């Protein structure tokens, strides 16, 4: 089963499963997960090929959705699900293939469509680092700066670096090989009839008006909302506003 990080304790409400995006981990969501745990049991996962979870040559959305279904079964059989980017696509496939396991769903800044936003250059940057010369995180940051200009992107990636063991907690080879699948979306028929919030960053271009027809076809109860001033990493850009939107939706408001 996927590695999980729990916050709060079980109660009479469904647990909330948090599913991170590409190159992320459960720890990226620690602050938000802890804050939301005042009302419910929150379970953040490391997806396959990420964090402390198992590594596999497969990184398809049906396989990732099955991983999530196994976690939900372990925690009682049904959950509310919050997924960002790659995790949002995996959550949507979970809802379409295992609808009985999902109560409410929040999809953060992604649509069920193929994208051209390749992230392969970040894999190549991480693969290029000679970790034998890295004694502390700042060493790795200096080396990465030659490939990645943004300090915030470098800081995000470096959360997946085990400095002591001199290794990445990411299966970089499998992620590179499966990048076309990560960017795509499987051809799935049917629909998920539960409540869905498509929550986007107002400055992001990941969820566009032309995507709405496909979203409504697969998720007929989908509602749309945007967080002003937030980009694709909306939970990091505007954490309090993101948290408020999640609470309002999960509480039926």
CATH class of the largest domain: Alpha Beta
- Rg (C-alpha, Å): 18 Å
Uncertain residue segments: none
Sheet with most strands: strand arrangement: 1-3-2-4-5-8-9
CATH evolutionary superfamily of the largest domain: Alpha/Beta hydrolase fold, catalytic domain
Describe the structure.
- The protein is α/β, with parallel strands linked by helices and 253 residues long.
- The protein folds into 2 domains: 4-115 and 184-250, Alpha/Beta hydrolase fold, catalytic domain (Rossmann fold, 3-Layer(aba) Sandwich); 120-170, no CATH class.
- 36% of the residues lie in helices and 16% in strands.
- It contains 11 helices and 9 strands.
- The protein has helices spanning 30-36, 61-74, 86-97, 120-128, 137-144, 151-158, 172-177, 179-183, 212-218, 234-237, 239-250, and strands at 4-7, 16-19, 42-45, 79-84, 102-108, 161-162, 167-168, 196-201, 222-227.
- Strands 1-3-2-4-5-8-9 form a 7-stranded mixed β-sheet, sandwiched between helices. Strands 6-7 form a two-stranded antiparallel sheet.
- Helix 9 (212-218) links the parallel strand 8 and strand 9.
- Helix 5 packs across helix 6.
- The radius of gyration is 18 Å and the shape is globular.
- It starts with a strand and ends with a helix.
- The mean pLDDT is 96.
Brief characterization of the structure:
By secondary structure, the protein is an alpha/beta fold.
Give me the secondary-structure topology.
Elements: E1 4-7, E2 16-19, H1 30-36, E3 42-45, H2 61-74, E4 79-84, H3 86-97, E5 102-108, H4 120-128, H5 137-144, H6 151-158, E6 161-162, E7 167-168, H7 172-177, H8 179-183, E8 196-201, H9 212-218, E9 222-227, H10 234-237, H11 239-250
Parallel strand pairs: 2-3, 2-4, 4-5, 5-8, 8-9
Antiparallel strand pairs: 1-3, 6-7
Helix pairs in contact: 2-3, 5-6
């Amino acid at each position: 089963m996927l590695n999980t990080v729990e916050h709060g304790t079980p109660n009479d409400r469904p647990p909330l499963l948090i599913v991170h995006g590409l190159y992320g981990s459960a720890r990226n969501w620690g602050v938000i997960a802890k804050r939301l745990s005042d009302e419910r049991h929150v379970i953040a996962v490391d997806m396959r090929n990420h964090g402390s979870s198992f590594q596999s040559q497969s990184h398809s959305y049906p396989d990732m959705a099955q991983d999530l279904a196994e976690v939900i079964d372990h925690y009682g059989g049904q959950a509310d699900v919050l997924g960002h980017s790659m995790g949002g696509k995996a959550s949507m496939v979970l809802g379409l293939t295992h609808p009985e396991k999902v109560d409410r769903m929040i999809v953060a800044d992604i649509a069920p469509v193929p994208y051209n936003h390749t992230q392969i250059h970040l894999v190549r940057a991480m693969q290029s680092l000679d970790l034998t010369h890295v004694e502390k995180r700042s060493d790795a940051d200096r080396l990465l700066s030659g490939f990645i200009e943004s300090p915030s992107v470098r800081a995000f990636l470096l959360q997946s670096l085990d400095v002591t063991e001199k290794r990445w907690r990411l299966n970089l080879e499998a992620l590179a090989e499966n990048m076309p699948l990560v960017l795509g979306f499987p051809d799935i028929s049917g629909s998920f009839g539960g409540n869905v919030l498509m929550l986007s960053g107002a400055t992001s271009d990941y969820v566009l008006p032309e995507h709405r027809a496909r979203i409504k076809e697969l998720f007929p109860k989908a509602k749309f909302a945007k967080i002003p001033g937030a980009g694709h990493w909306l939970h990091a850009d505007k954490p309090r506003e993101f948290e408020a939107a999640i609470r309002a939706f999960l509480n039926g408001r």
